[in-house]
Amino acid sequence: xxxxxxxxxxxxxxxxxxxxxxxxxxxxxxxxxxxxxxxxxxxxxxxxxxxxxxxxxxxxxxxxxxxxxxxxxxxxxxxxxxxxxxxxxxxxxxxxxxxxxxxxxxxxxxxxxxxxxxxxxxxxxxxxxxxxxxxxxxxxxxxxxxxxxxxxxxxxxxxxxxxxxxxxxxxxxxxxxxxxxxxxxxxxxxxxxxxxxxxxxxxxxxxxxxxxxxxxxxxxxxxxxxxxxxxxxxxxxxxxxxxxxxxxxxxxxxxxxxxxxxxxxxxxxxxxxxxxxxxxxxxxxxx
Length: 287
Ligand SMILES: Nc1nc2c(ncn2[C@@H]2O[C@H](COP(=O)(O)OP(=O)(O)OP(=O)(O)O)[C@@H](O)[C@H]2O)c(=O)[nH]1
Ligand SMILES: [Mg+2]
Hints:
The protein is of the alpha/beta class. Helices cover about 40% and strands about 10% of the residues. The protein has a 6-stranded mixed beta sheet, sandwiched between helices.
């Protein structure tokens, strides 16, 4: 079958994201600190430049979430990069609650001067007021539920689950504002759009599947060729995108009547395997 690879600029910036940005600006002055959740698999592509511009004068704690899905060595490199640039950071897995118990102490250290000042003025210690910011589907609501020890907010394995801001008070540690995930109007680098699409930050029904899977397979071929061999029996000397698609289709039995490859099913297999760690921990951003 002749398949033509299309190239489109990926974009997703509906009106509710624009509105969310305005609401974030309005609430900012109430915050002691802001927490930016990045996706540990793409610590550069998942940093929203518009958000960073808005919050850059506030104390910031960066949480690298979904550490369980990332390639650990590459994640550590990115964490050092952010640290060198003056950001406090912590890697976490909000779903399995790894390192989430360290967040309060880390947040306290970021705003230590303010806390010390308040203490010397004799002010009573109060919960740290913070907002959780990040791209869609990065795990903001899951983190809030982990910190609160109950299902305080709705979560889901697709972008755009949280529709409005919501305050959650957590005993004496935090007062947290959950916010809807936001992207920005235009991704400067095409790779950013691909990384966001592959990992599920952009609604699947608006992404050009063929184009995104093309990018993903060539990326995996470059950085993780052995995993393609182990998972789909793609030979190490096979580099052609269409041949790789056909191989996955045959190996997984994604066939139409007449034994033609069912490409839509192949796209689904690729993205699901990447997102569910069936190909191991992956890091998409590289220096
Ligand atoms: N593997 C893994 N999955 C996670 C982690 N944190 C969250 N998830 C999953 O990621 C998906 C999205 O989580 P949410 O908490 O709804 O994400 P959100 O950032 O609130 O998304 P929006 O409200 O759409 O902006 C859910 O399926 C979570 O179970 C993590 O650390 N590791
Ligand atoms: Mg949410």
